[in-house]
Amino acid sequence: MIRHDYSRVDPKRRANIDHKKKQFATAEYQQLNYEHRLNFYDLPPTAEITLEEFETWAINRLKVLSELEGCSFRNKGPEETAEYMKGILDKHLPLKSDSSRSQKLQDERRRDHYSHFILRLAFSSTEDLRRRFSRLETMLFRLRFKDDDPRERQGFVHSLNLEWDEVKEDEKRELREELLAASGQKKGDDQEWFKVDWERVPELVEQRRVLLKRGKAYVPQREQMSLVVAEFTRKLDDALELTARALPRLDEDDRLAPILAHLAQSFATPDAAYSSTDANIDGLSAIRATSIDTLAQNFPLCMRNLHMTLRENSHLKHYGRLQYSLFLKGIGLSLDECLVFWRRSFKLIDDDKFQKEYKYNIRHVYGDVGGDANRRGRGYTPYSCQKLLTEPAPGPGQTHGCPYRTYKPENLIPLLQRVGVNDRDVLKTVREDVGKQRYHVACNRVFEWSHKNEIKKVKEDGSWSVNDLDTIVHPNTYFKRSWLLKHLGEGNVGVVNGGEKMEE
Amino acid sequence: MTKMPHSITPESTPGDDSSRTVSQVDTVKSEPETQDVAMDDAPTPPATEKAKINLEELFDDEDSDGEFASSAPVVKEEDESSQPAPLKISPKSSFSDPEIMRAFYQRLFPFRPLFQWLNHSPAPTPAFAHREFAFTLPNDAYLRYQSFPTADLLRKQCIQMLPSRFEIGPQYSTNPRDRKTVRKASAFRPIMKELVFDIDMTDYDDIRTCCTGASICHKCWSFITMAIKVIDVALREDFGFKHILWVYSGRRGAHAWVCDKRARELDDQKRRSIAGYLELLKGGDNAGKKVNARRPLHPHIERSLAILKEHFQSCILAEQDPWATDAKAAHLLNLIPDTQLRAALQKKWDSSPHRPSAAKWSDIDALAKSGALSKSPKDLVEAKQDIVLEYTYPRLDAEVSKKLNHLLKSPFVIHPGTGRVCVPIDTRRVEEFDPLGVPTVTQLLGEIDAWKGEEGERKVQDWEKTSLKPYVDYFRRFVAGLMEEGKGVKREREEGDAMEF
């Protein structure tokens, strides 16, 4: 699909030598006709494009995908995301409906098609990239599916030829009540249902939004999207797997590989955001188990809450321990001190039980034990806000996660008051933020309030740049910034620079 | 994605530390103070018994090749043909004695049905041979990635190592013992396991008033009974599974093994979605109301509510009396959405402290009728339904169900804290199941000796002489049903497997 360079062997001539390649060669100039706006990307593109097109199209799609990812990091709801993405999509990856009668219809669809396949190449190399790519492409597909013209969408779905059983009239009558209850609908709005094996709609099953009978899921027409999207993801995942396997055998000169590598690189995971240098905070001497109680004042609410629970109960459940140990590791507590910390904190547990049931997990967190990969990676990285906000909510007796999300507002406010946040306006806006699911905004608001004097000071004397006061998206950043601000004038002003690697 | 030690994943190497992860909560906790077991004796080696074992067997023992075998006194190693000499068990013997454990594995543990159960057909297949077993040894070392070509070899190693318990994991794509020899890490991955559920009493601690910690009584066992009823019917009617084995976990919980072929082959995502479908309670201690069911109720919740309603009256209001104290009653008040009604109730309860929960519960309706209700009666009905569900709906340890490679304790092993055998629970008579009446290993061994029946044509197996018999019979019938179903697909599968050899 690359315009050939005359100094090289003509690819078509090469193809003629090898009969296997010949069959592909004939397809070379076949332009696909894109009947529908949406695309399942079943067929790879076959025509030629220039190197420049190759790169710009890919970069444009990449921009769209990273913006999408940003939306999910910022916990934007579906409507908000759609609103936000509209402009970006129109700019970088426009895709108009048939009804627009646009001249560029085919051209836009071709771009969409090609750029998808280019990124597929770039992001199929590792499991991690594949998973992210598939997640984001699915998000993009869902976004487009939603705002597609209903009639065109119907046509597209029809063209997919998915095998769905329709629920017959008599069965519908018989199960009417249950069908309506399961799909959460008012009586009266009549509609159609499909019957499929429940395994095909795991998403709907998980949220209890379909009726299940003997292994069959009764999916209302309205939930069709979920089915189509699931099918899209499934196909894409399979295809990515195949691409990954074919990648080493890519019949390629050295023009594409650098572009692909570059694309993959610029898509680096923000999850690997924590670096061990963040543990080094100038002016903060080596942390000991005994100093945690004092330092807890600088902890973000999620960690402070764990600390208080730990002091109250002399115990924390598994996920709480995990989250807290990782954080403590992140602020520079050594394994030995961490073990001392937990041993002393679990006052009610005898040594034997501690050794048997808890020690291993703490060592595992630090990469002291466990599989090869765990040891080499020195255990896990401390959890980011993103991670805490997307983990399953805590169950009975558990306290991990982000309190802004897991606490009911009536319980959150007293908790904040307990840690000294008593400004009525702040509490009110926090409540609003939380109501809109902007948990990190609420957390940053509390940070700004409780450090308002210090922030004012560093802003005024210009010792901290704007970047140093960027939104906090990692509990360890919270701690570091808080500690530094509270210890201004102790010879460490300005040491934050370069300390914001966590967000990259 | 980081893997947490919570679920046991292949990256933790076997036995590299004597401690272990905490996920199988009830199997690990070993607080000595259980009310239902006579634990007054520290494990005393039954020195008095040694003398009674006859000389012949002393010599028999010599051919045993196990490194652990020699330290324990004189019981026969591997012999099925001759009846082992009676091993005298006094009620004082501790169930963790090596001798007891050996006798148990030798004479009582139903290895053959267990093999057929995991193998789904009479001749050994990779479903058994590539299956991971994990042993917990008497010194608490944890030995992962064990696998056995046949039931006899599993039995042999049990008798040799005397694990205090063992767990069953998935079938892997290659033999777990060869996992280090595969060229690529991806060539060693879990491919099949029963869908499992774990219900444990710890998750009920905030609403359980009769016992705390590791102890249980009949009152709190009803939580488990309710959970089994609800989950079982959902798995059968909604998901269409037929072969569901419920097993008592030995102390205060129950496990379910869904063995249908369709269930065994589910990937992690689908396991997660079943767990999500069955989970209702959301949020930690501070999330406030834990149940916020969507209306109209989903048919599964509607059906569960119908099952649980009757139990709520007897098990919760009468037996548990969950709102007796003021602090607990405050929680109930928080669950009522109507401020006006809440204030009226508060006033009434303040004036009569320690009013029983049943009375408090009926106060809600009484006061609502007398005009203290500011919202619609429908809201109150729904709030009350949510409360019933919060106090009765099953609380699953969902992590166990979500992962294909999660290990779960095998049926019929002995719980190291109580000495009770992890017997199957017959769901048709789930109400009659009495966890405190489940035989302990010492009791069973005693029963063999006390057996007075006639040896007829057929040799009577040791387990048939004991109160373990009904449980083994039930298990064998279950396995037979499972194998019957497997017959249809057997041919096809065998052909597929032929590729691997």
UniProtKB/TrEMBL annotation, chain A:
Keyword DNA-binding assigned: yes
GO BP field: DNA replication initiation; DNA replication, synthesis of primer
Recorded GO CC terms: alpha DNA polymerase:primase complex
Note on cofactor: Binds 1 [4Fe-4S] cluster.
Domain DNA primase large subunit C-terminal: 297-479
Listed GO MF terms: 4 iron, 4 sulfur cluster binding; DNA binding; metal ion binding
InterPro entries: DNA_primase_C, DNA_primase_lsu_euk, DNA_primase_lsu_euk/arc
Transmembrane segments: none
Binding-site positions, [4Fe-4S] cluster: C302, C385, C402, C443
Keyword Iron appears in the UniProt entry: yes
Cofactor: [4Fe-4S] cluster
Pfam families, per the entry: DNA_primase_lrg, DNA_primase_lrg_N
Keywords: 4Fe-4S, DNA replication, DNA-binding, Iron, Iron-sulfur, Metal-binding, Primosome
Chain segments annotated as coiled-coil in the UniProt record: none
Function: DNA primase is the polymerase that synthesizes small RNA primers for the Okazaki fragments made during discontinuous DNA replication.
Family: Belongs to the eukaryotic-type primase large subunit family.
Protein name (Swiss-Prot/TrEMBL): DNA primase large subunit
Organism the protein comes from: Ophiobolus disseminans
TrEMBL record, chain B:
One term of GO molecular function: DNA-directed RNA polymerase activity
Region (Disordered): 1-93
SUPFAM superfamilies for the chain: Prim-pol domain
One BP term from GO: DNA replication, synthesis of primer
Organism: Ophiobolus disseminans
Biased composition (Acidic residues): 57-66
Enzyme class: transferase
Keywords carried by this UniProt record: DNA replication, DNA-directed RNA polymerase, Metal-binding, Nucleotidyltransferase, Primosome, Transcription, Transferase
CDD domains: AE_Prim_S
PANTHER family, per database record: DNA PRIMASE SMALL SUBUNIT
InterPro entries assigned: DNA_primase_S, DNA_primase_ssu_euk/arc
NCBIfam families found in the cross-reference section: primase_sml (TIGR00335)
Cellular component, GO annotation: alpha DNA polymerase:primase complex
Compositional bias segments (type: Polar residues): 9-27
Family the UniProt entry places it in: Belongs to the eukaryotic-type primase small subunit family.
Biological classification of the source: Eukaryota, Fungi, Dikarya, Ascomycota, Pezizomycotina
Protein name per UniProt: DNA primase
EC nos: 2.7.7.-
